[in-house]
Amino acid sequence: MPVVKEESHTAIDNEFLTNVGDKSRILEMLTQTSAYIAEFFNESERPVPAEAEVQVKQFFHGLEKENDFDSVLKEVMEHIMKCSLNISHPHAMAHLHCPPLLSGVCADVIVSALNQSMDSWDQSPAATTVETEVVNWLCELYQLPQTAAGTFTTGGTQSNFMGLLLARDQYCARELSHDVKADGLPAEAARFKIFCSEEAHFTVKKSAVQLGLGERSVVGVPTDEHKKMSTGKLEAFIQEARVAGDHPIAIVATAGTTDFGSIDPLQEIRRTADKENLWMHVDAAFGGALALCSAQAEKLDGVHKADSLAVDFHKLFYQPVSCGAFLVRSRDSFRFIRHGADYLNPEDDRDEGFTNLVDYSMQTTRRFDALKILMTLRTLGTEKWAEMIGQGLRQAGRLAEKINDEPELYLVMKPEMNAVVFKYCTETSFGEREEDEINREIQQQLYASGEAVIAKTKLNDRQFLKCTLLNPLTKEEDIDHVIQSVIETGREIEIIRRRKQQ
Ligand SMILES: Cc1ncc(COP(=O)(O)O)c(C=O)c1O
């Protein structure tokens, strides 16, 4: 038998979270790490450093040698943290990407330290109970029936995929007496159709591809002037599909579109889904957080009638990436993804009353992200959390008003949530294409200079700018700063271009 030398054993003890060896090392490493994090946020003046060059190649030399942890942290600070996007900065307002709450960050540290795996109860005894209870709390929040169940996911992409997978397999079982899990796709699958608005997230199409249905199975329904799905057109498109011999299987409603934050008419969509006997999946990755705010919750009217629901916590719930949930009206629907493994989730466990959460998930090994929700709920309480969510919405409203007041800017529409789409209007001597280029350049220059991080998007093939105000700490002066930076940058680009033309 090989003899393990005492010295080498002691040397590796200190590299793990054990109760042997030098316990002060845990404290030392975590304290040093938090000190660097605090210093980074203390010193970070811009949302991104101006012209930062990321140089990490040198770290890949001499990898066989140990290094002092503090020197590793210094390298990470200088070459990685300082070159990163500071998403907590109030001038970072590009995407649906939020500043994380401290309670969520601390929960994430515990999640990593405990390193539970959510697939089976024996790998996560307390965590299984926590996730089950957080999911129950969510089902109550969205007023789903007693039959509802859910799971934590990596985010909207996975949740949308799960909703459409269950929709597909339920349709096959109910309408075609076909078992996809056992036999793969039926011949009719080539004619399956999924309906969503033209503003729905691209992951609806991506899911359709992965589900073997192809992108063409997704029918984009036009939206009204508020970017909400037109239910008249939805009904007409479903009828057309039936006449053509297609098989409508599901409708995806969006509660909070990525670009405009628009919420589809959920009640009306439910009525159509009922009439047509279709699964209704609600992508509430963005808008789901409104359920927490009493003043906003009615915008989600009808969400409780969803067959399945995607909610993201790493968007408007201010949790560290990644953290999302998928909820389903009937727990029984999870039978379509369940696979038994003797070593992990045997039938006997179920008979004996043990819950193995792998039965509800696409993943096997899975992080204990539900702890972030529990710790934030316990730390802040729903009232304070809701107040923060409401704050972002109010700021987006203010930004939109200010844009409207600026003659050089054009606001596309009053935002329903936190996303504001607008553009810089050039003088008439510049054509449409040049105006598009100038708007693109504004976004790029603001990013390169570290002045502000805003996004760009397209509408009817024209270039627009977008601000997503997810930071409750964004103040009036931050909004003014970003607006003025857009205008001044636009003016400068115009001057330079005009000079070049002469
Ligand atoms: C409406 C909507 N659904 C789904 C997604 C995908 O979510 P995730 O990035 O969490 O997978 C997004 C991402 O922004 C989104 O805006």
TrEMBL record:
A single BP term in Gene Ontology: amino acid metabolic process
Cofactors that this protein relies on: pyridoxal 5'-phosphate
Pfam families: Pyridoxal_deC
Annotated coiled-coil segments of the chain: none
CC per GO annotation: cytoplasm
GO molecular function terms listed in the Swiss-Prot or TrEMBL record: aromatic-L-amino-acid decarboxylase activity; pyridoxal phosphate binding
Positions where N6-(pyridoxal phosphate)lysine occurs in the chain: 315
Transmembrane segments: none
InterPro entries: Aromatic_deC, PyrdxlP-dep_de-COase, PyrdxlP-dep_Trfase, PyrdxlP-dep_Trfase_major, PyrdxlP-dep_Trfase_small, Pyridoxal-P_BS
Gene3D superfamilies, sorted: Aspartate Aminotransferase, domain 1, Type I PLP-dependent aspartate aminotransferase-like (Major domain)
Keywords per UniProt: Decarboxylase, Lyase, Pyridoxal phosphate
Family: Belongs to the group II decarboxylase family.
Protein name per its UniProtKB record: L-2,4-diaminobutyrate decarboxylase
Organism: Marinococcus luteus
